[in-house]
Design a protein that fits this description.
The complex is a heterodimer. Chain A is of the alpha+beta class. Chain A contains 19 helices and 19 strands. Chain B has 19 helices and no strands. The chains are: A alpha+beta, B mainly alpha.
């Protein structure tokens, strides 16, 4: 076990005992067959420039003065490849993403572990012990801590549970790994909230459209708008198409009018039409809260036919737990749940097993009124209708209750500017 | 009509962009005219008349150079200065720099509360009432308020600085003489003059400004494409703050200096104005001091807490509320509580010590400026936004002059009587 901070600044001497210089950096290569990058070379400052000594030529890496097993003249310098990491330059003291704890932390030190004659990056030290060790206060601090009966946490996370920020990575890694894209969108939103705005823009750039869309939906519209500010119109339009229409409308409402018009023109016609309709309603009215992605069927279909319809068309819908029944003129006449549908005999008609008494809200009802209806009747979603009882969309329970139980990260500490 | 509208469109877009960007530069510059600053400018005007006005022109130029670099660092890297120092210089230097910043900012916070106490005493309010109320109000504003509303409050508060411009006019100075003295550099080799000369520079270009402005810019997420607008924000802010400073000097010079009255503080200056320029001038002057002190008592602790958390990677501990961000709120609260307590405790020497510790700013400034110049010339970090050759020569020359002057200030304030 060795710490990177202890290697840096150590003198290096060749086989004849001539000093080559002092270590300025350690280079590690990611390996396909191991989770942890392997130490490939050390950078030594020699006559003002970096001299790269391959790990194979180093007799002992962890030593008060590092001996090399060759003469200076015989050393063939290490060739850096694109994926190599300069540990001091790229990792030490930088921010990284802890994909286990879903947060952004600063690296206080790197743990290098020796396995079969090779060194690997084992862990990243993010705890206060790492900080104190680098200040030369480790032993004093741990003694005090023991006296106080509160041992200091070592705060170590394994390398494979971390991800470098896109801005600090070598070129090859501009695309985020599976570690990031597999995270729940709400966790991604937490990570974005830990970063400054420009860092988070870089972070979003490294993600694919679908992931960006999912993560953005978890973020406050106001902040969404500033995140997409730096993206190209084409990319934002793609992201908007991926988002549910109500979230897309909320985001567009936060942008300057000219830009949101440009974006709507770039979007696919159908997606844009839904969003345009939603944009006409006040943000905190039922119309502004609703989504247009719900499932509606005609009353004369059979249960079996409805199942078929669901299979074919419902993958886009926000929820299929409720299926709404509308006439040709879009008048809402009934509703049934997935449970009703599954329990109905395949040849029964919708008209026979649907509920005729429907709880609805009007387009211009306020968010409070919608939330009360949802809470009172224990609904997962409530349909939104106009005076003629024509159906326009649904408000899901989470959107309705958002105002009463704010999304966790509305309650952040004050940013200097936000 | 439509054609005219269309021709105005690019102009309109530009104004809108500017309004979106504006903020960090102006707010930073305004906090610069804090209790310590107002005291310095009043004393300068009262003791030496218009003869220090010419240097404000040069100080403004120097301030713009420093703050522009800070803005450029923030816009291009998207990181705060504390974060960049940590990433480039490692733990040890960071600890030293942040340690000094912490103490210097505590000292500055103390002087803000001193300003609150002094200005409210002019209105007949005891400091045992005004200081605790101000401390609690400032604490609640940041911890419980939404920052958006806080920013608006601050931008509106900036307008109150115009009180000094008005009180400057009320003093009815001989404008021809003022203009002449502004354009003709003079110098007196006299210890009091030299000390004040350097203090004006020290109070105008203070290290916390670079930390605060850069974090604010990074947090606001101002992109490289609008860098020219951010520059404008900085330049407007610097001019505004130094014009206000000039009016404070002019106001005191036209009245107090002209009648040869002795003053030691901004509060003295405010009182002295009443018989000379009318009681309304006193009210305006005191109100300006109160506003500046409260404004800075909120911003300074906030920016300090940010710098510390940024440097040591506690950003993420800074999550949602008080309980989940103990270090951030701990530092913020401690600075306010200590700042208010030191003013309220009847220990005169403690207060004097804290007020005199402007010296710490002087020690820190050269380090910060050299670090900034190294960072801004780093190609890997700044790409094509590194300093140009001429800009580098000017800024290095300025840094060397500033280092020399602050060196003199540190020596003279540590060993008073050296020059006399």
């Amino acid at each position: 076990m060795a710490y990177l901070s202890e290697l840096l600044g150590k003198p290096v001497a060749d086989i004849d005992g001539n000093k080559i210089g002092t270590i300025t950096d350690v280079i590690a290569s990611p390996r396909a067959d191991a989770l942890h990058p392997q130490i490939a070379a050390i950078a030594v400052k020699r006559k003002g420039v970096d001299f790269l000594i391959p790990y194979a030529d180093i007799a002992v890496l962890v030593a008060p003065a590092v001996p090399v097993s060759k003469r200076i003249a015989d050393i063939i310098q290490y060739q850096v490849s694109e994926s190599d990491l300069y540990l001091a330059r790229d990792v030490l003291d930088k921010q990284i993403i802890d994909t286990n704890g879903m947060r952004v932390v600063r690296v206080n030190d790197l743990d290098l572990a020796r396995v079969n004659n090779a060194f690997y990056i084992a862990n990243l030290d993010i705890g206060s012990m790492g900080l104190l060790r680098r200040l030369g206060l480790a032993s004093v601090a741990s003694k005090v801590a023991v006296k106080l009966g509160r041992p200091l946490s070592s705060g170590v996370i394994a390398w494979h549970d971390t991800e470098l920020l896109p801005g600090d990575q070598p070129m090859r890694l501009k695309v985020a790994s599976d570690k990031i894209t597999d995270l729940h969108p709400a966790d991604l939103a937490e990570i974005i909230s830990d970063l400054s705005r420009s860092e988070s823009s870089k972070f979003l750039e490294s993600l694919d459209i679908k992931t960006v869309a999912d993560a953005l939906e978890e973020v406050e519209p106001e902040y969404q708008a500033s995140l997409v500010e730096g993206m190209t119109d084409e990319k934002v339009a793609d992201v908007l198409e991926e988002m549910s229409p109500d979230a897309a409308a909320d985001l567009l409402a936060e942008l300057p009018e000219e830009r949101s018009e440009d974006l709507l023109n770039l979007m696919q016609h159908e997606d844009a039409r839904d969003v345009r309709e939603l944009l006409t309603y006040a943000v905190d009215s039922a119309g502004g809260l609703m989504t247009t992605e719900y499932v509606a069927v005609r009353p004369d279909l059979t249960a079996a036919q409805v199942m078929e319809v669901l299979r074919e068309t419902a993958n886009e819908a926000e929820t299929i737990f409720y299926v709404y029944v509308t006439e040709a003129d879009e008048r809402l006449v009934g509703v049934f749940s997935l449970q009703n549908l599954v329990l109905a005999k395949p040849d029964r008609r919708v008209n026979d097993f649907m509920h005729h008494r429907i709880v609805t809200v009007m387009l211009e009802d306020t968010q409070d009124e919608v939330a009360q209806v949802v809470a009172k009747y224990n609904l997962l979603a409530v349909p939104v209708v106009d005076e003629q009882h024509r159906m326009h969309g649904i408000v899901t329970a989470d959107d309705a209750l958002d105002k009463i139980i704010p999304t966790a990260w509305k309650k952040r500490i004050p940013k200097l500017y936000r | 009509m439509t054609r005219l509208w269309n021709r105005l469109k690019p102009f309109r877009t530009r104004i809108l962009l500017l309004l979106a960007v504006i903020g960090p530069g102006i707010i930073t510059a305004n906090v610069d005219n804090d209790a310590g600053g107002i005291t310095t400018y009043s004393v300068a005007g009262a003791r030496y008349g218009y003869s220090l006005l010419w240097m404000l022109v040069l100080v403004t130029l120097a301030l713009i150079i420093v703050q522009e670099m800070s803005a450029r660092l923030g816009v291009v890297t998207g990181k705060g200065l504390a974060a960049l120092i940590r990433e480039r210089l490692g733990v040890r230097w960071t600890t030293i720099i942040i340690g000094i910043l912490l103490i210097a900012n505590l000292a500055n916070t103390v002087s803000e509360f001193a300003g609150i106490a002094a200005s409210m005493e002019i209105f007949g309010v005891s400091k045992y009432i005004s200081v605790p109320i101000a401390a609690i109000a400032v604490w609640f504003l940041i911890v419980k308020g939404s920052y958006k509303s806080v920013e608006r409050v601050f931008l509106v508060a900036s307008v109150i600085y115009l009180a000094y411009v008005i009180s400057g006019f009320m003093a009815n100075p001989p404008w021809a003489a003022v203009l002449k003295e502004t354009l003709t550099p003079t110098f007196k080799l006299e210890s009091g003059y030299v000390a004040l000369f350097i203090t004006v520079i020290g109070t105008t270009i203070a290290p916390w400004m670079q930390f605060y402005q850069q974090s604010a810019i990074a947090d606001k997420g101002i992109s490289v494409s609008v860098l020219p607008y951010e520059r404008l924000d900085v330049i407007i802010g610097c001019f505004f703050t130094d014009i206000v400073a000039a009016f404070i000097m002019i106001g005191c010079a036209a009245t107090i200096y002209a009648h040869n009255l002795p003053i030691e503080s901004a509060a003295d200056a405010a009182r002295a104005l009443a018989p000379l320029a009318g009681p309304f001038a006193t009210v305006l002057f005191a109100l300006g001091l109160l506003n500046a002190s409260v404004f800075s008592a909120a911003i300074l602790p906030l920016s300090t807490a940010y710098a510390v958390c940024e440097a040591f990677g506690w950003e993420s501990a800074v999550n949602r509320n008080l309980r989940e961000a103990p270090i951030f709120f701990g530092i913020y609260t401690a600075l306010i509580v200590l700042g208010a307590l030191i003013i309220l405790l009847p220990i005169k020497s403690l207060v004097d010590a804290m007020l005199a510790s402007q010296t710490l700013n002087g020690v820190l400034l050269p380090i910060i400026l050299i670090v900034m110049l190294r960072l801004i010339n780093d190609k890997r970090l700044m790409g094509k936004y590194v300093n140009g050759r001429i800009f580098n020569i000017i800024s290095w020359a300025m840094v060397i002059v500033l280092i020399f002057l602050t060196g003199v200030l540190v020596v003279t304030s540590t060993f008073p009587g050296l020059l006399s």
